[in-house]
Amino acid sequence: MSEHKITTVETGIVGGTIYQRAKWSAVLKAPDAEPKEFSGNLHLLYKQQQDGSWKILTHTWN
Q: Which CATH number do you get for residue 56?
C-alpha cells in the first residue's frame, strides 16, 4: 500500500463531541499486477472526558 492520502471534508464541535469527516485514498501495488487505487470515507467522533481530555468514541473507514 502506498500513496495513502486523507483529505478533511468537515470538522466541528457540538457540545462535548468533535466530529471529523474525510475522504481517503491509497494505491495497492502488487508485484505482478497493475496498481489499483482504493478510496472511501472516514468518520471520527471524539468525546470530551470529565478531566477535559478527548478520547475517540468511534473511528470508521469504508
A: 3.10.450.50
Report the distance separating Cα 25 and Cα 5, nearest Å.
5
**Domain span at residue 9?**
2-61
pTM of the predicted protein model: 0.75
Are 40 and 17 in contact by the 8 Å Cβ rule? The answer is no
Number of domains in the chain: 1
Task: Give the N- to C-terminal CA distance of the chain in Å, as an integer.
Answer: 16
CA 12 to chain centre: 14
Q: In the chain, which residues have pLDDT < 50? A: none
Q: Hey, how many other C-beta atoms are within 10 angstroms of the C-beta on 28?
A: 13
Please list, in sequence order, all residues whose beta carbon lies within 8 angstroms of the beta carbon of residue 4, skipping any fewer than 6 positions away. 24, 25, 26
The three grid cell numbers given for residue 46, joined into one nine-digit string: 471524539
